[in-house]
Backbone:
C-alpha cells in the first residue's frame, strides 16, 4: 500500500515536471497563441452555458474582459495628445469611465450569442514581448465566410494582456482614437468623460 | 433577361458622366492621403451628406429592411443575397482581369456559370459548397493596385462611405453590372432596389451596433471604412501574387 502510494506520488511528480518543461519549451509566440485560445474557450464556456441568466452571462463576460484587457494603456492611447492635457483628477475619472464604457459595449455583443466555433490560425511576435494572434470565428451558417480577428497582446508582469482587437482589418483602438479625437476637439476632456459615463449607463440598462 | 446595350444617346451620356467624375476624382486623388483614417478635408460637406443619409435611411431604407427581415426568413435572405452577388459577378470578373489576377478571374467566371445553372439563377451558392471561392473586388481596388491613392474621404448619400477613388470606382463598376443593360426600366430599378435592401440587411447589426455604441458614428464609419479598404487592398495585392502561382506560373 505504502509502496503504491509512493509510486503514484512519484509518477505524478514526474509528470508535473515534464508538463512544466513542455510548457517552458513552447516558444513565446506559441504561449501567446495558447493564451488567446484559453481566453476564447473561457468566453465560449460562458456564452454556451444555458444554465446562466442573461445578466449573469453579461457579468461573467465582463469579469473575463477585465482580467484580460490592458485598460490603462488602451485608455491613454485612444485619448491621443489630449491625455497629457488632462489633469490627474480628469485622467483618473476618465480611465474609470472608459473601462466601463469599453466593457459594456464590447461584452453586450457576445451576450447575444449562444454558440460558436473558433480556431487560432496564426501567432507571431511583432516586437519584443508583443504578439499578434490570428483567429477565425466560424459561422453556423454554411457557406458564410469566417470572421477574421487579430488580437494584439503584450506580455506583462501579470501575464498576457490584450491591447487591440482587429476585426477584418478594422482596429478597435484606431477607430476609437478617431472617434474620441473628434469628441475631444468639440467637447473637451470633461465633455468626453460625461458622454462615456452616460453611454455606459444606457448600455447597462438595455 | 435582356442584356442588349441601350441606345446611342444613353451611351454618350454615360461617357460624359464618366469624364466628369474622372476629372473631379483625379483632382482629389492628387492629394496624398495615405492611410490616415482622420484625413477628411471635405468633412463639413460629408457631415451634411451623412446627416441627410441618416434621415433617408431612417424613413425609407431601414423600415423597408426591417419589414424584409421580419417577413423573409434567414434562409430566404441568404438566397436573395446569393442571387444579388451572382448577378454582380461581372464586376468582380472584369476587375480581376484588369488587376491581372488569373486565378480570381477564372474562379469568378466558373462560379458564375455554376451558380447560374446548378444554383438556379444564383439562388444557391453551389460553387462555395464544392470549394470554389473567389475574392470579391471592385474598380476602386483596381485603381489602388495601379497606384492611385485613396484621395479625400467622401460620403455618398445612401450609398455610404467610399473615398474619392472608390467613389469613382463605383461609377465604373455600375457599368459592369447587368442591371445597367436591362432595357426595361422597371426591372432595372427592381434589381438595384433589391441589391440596396440586401446590402442594408447584411450590415443591419453592424450599423445598429455603431449607432448604439459610438460617440460619433460619422467618425466611426469613416475610420472603419478607411481601415477596411486598406486591408482589402493589401489582401488583393497578396492574392494577385499568389494567383500566378496557383494558375501554374512560377516566376
Residues:
Amino acid at each position: 500500500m505504502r509502496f503504491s502510494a509512493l509510486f503514484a506520488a512519484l509518477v505524478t511528480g514526474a509528470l508535473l515536471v515534464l508538463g512544466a518543461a513542455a510548457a517552458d519549451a513552447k516558444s513565446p509566440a506559441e504561449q501567446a497563441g495558447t493564451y488567446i485560445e484559453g481566453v476564447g474557450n473561457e468566453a465560449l464556456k460562458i456564452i454556451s452555458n444555458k444554465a446562466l441568466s442573461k445578466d449573469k452571462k453579461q457579468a461573467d463576460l465582463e469579469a473575463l474582459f477585465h482580467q484580460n484587457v490592458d485598460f490603462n494603456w488602451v485608455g491613454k492611447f485612444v485619448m491621443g495628445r489630449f491625455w497629457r492635457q488632462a489633469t490627474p483628477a480628469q485622467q483618473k475619472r476618465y480611465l474609470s469611465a472608459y473601462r466601463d464604457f469599453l466593457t459594456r459595449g464590447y461584452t453586450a455583443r457576445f451576450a447575444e450569442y449562444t454558440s460558436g466555433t473558433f480556431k487560432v490560425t496564426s501567432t507571431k511576435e511583432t516586437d519584443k514581448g508583443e504578439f499578434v494572434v490570428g483567429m477565425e470565428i466560424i459561422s453556423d451558417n454554411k457557406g458564410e465566410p469566417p470572421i477574421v480577428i487579430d488580437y494584439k497582446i503584450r506580455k506583462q508582469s501579470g501575464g498576457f494582456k490584450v491591447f487591440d482587437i482587429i476585426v477584418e482589418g478594422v482596429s478597435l483602438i484606431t477607430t476609437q482614437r478617431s472617434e474620441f479625437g473628434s469628441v475631444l476637439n468639440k467637447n473637451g476632456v470633461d465633455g468626453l468623460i460625461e458622454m462615456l459615463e452616460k453611454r455606459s449607463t444606457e448600455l447597462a440598462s438595455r | 433577361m435582356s442584356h442588349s446595350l441601350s441606345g446611342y444617346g444613353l451611351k454618350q451620356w454615360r461617357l460624359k458622366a464618366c469624364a466628369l467624375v474622372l476629372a473631379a476624382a483625379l483632382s482629389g486623388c492628387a492629394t496624398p492621403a495615405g492611410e490616415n483614417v482622420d484625413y477628411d478635408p471635405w468633412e463639413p460637406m460629408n457631415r451634411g451628406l451623412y446627416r441627410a443619409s441618416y434621415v433617408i435611411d431612417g424613413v425609407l431604407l431601414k423600415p423597408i429592411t426591417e419589414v424584409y427581415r421580419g417577413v423573409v426568413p434567414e434562409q430566404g435572405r441568404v438566397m436573395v443575397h446569393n442571387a444579388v452577388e451572382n448577378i454582380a459577378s461581372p464586376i468582380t470578373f472584369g476587375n480581376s482581369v484588369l488587376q491581372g489576377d488569373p486565378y480570381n478571374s477564372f474562379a469568378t467566371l466558373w462560379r458564375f456559370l455554376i451558380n447560374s445553372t446548378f444554383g438556379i439563377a444564383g439562388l444557391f451558392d453551389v460553387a462555395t459548397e464544392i470549394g470554389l471561392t473567389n475574392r470579391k473586388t471592385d474598380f476602386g481596388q483596381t485603381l489602388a493596385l495601379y497606384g492611385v491613392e485613396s484621395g479625400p474621404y467622401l460620403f455618398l448619400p445612401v450609398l455610404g462611405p467610399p473615398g474619392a477613388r472608390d467613389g469613382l470606382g463605383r461609377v465604373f463598376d455600375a457599368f459592369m453590372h447587368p442591371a445597367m443593360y436591362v432595357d426595361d426600366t422597371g426591372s432595372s430599378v427592381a434589381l438595384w432596389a433589391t441589391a440596396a435592401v440586401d446590402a442594408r440587411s447584411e450590415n443591419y447589426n453592424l450599423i445598429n451596433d455603431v449607432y448604439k455604441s459610438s460617440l460619433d458614428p460619422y467618425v466611426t464609419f469613416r475610420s472603419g471604412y478607411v481601415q477596411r479598404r486598406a486591408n482589402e487592398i493589401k489582401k488583393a495585392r497578396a492574392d494577385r501574387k499568389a494567383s500566378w502561382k496557383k494558375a501554374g506560373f512560377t516566376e
About this structure: The interface with chain B takes residues 105, 109, 141-143, 145, 168-171, 174-175, 178-183, 192, 195-196, 199, 203 of chain A (CB under 8 Å). The radius of gyration of chain A is 21 Å.
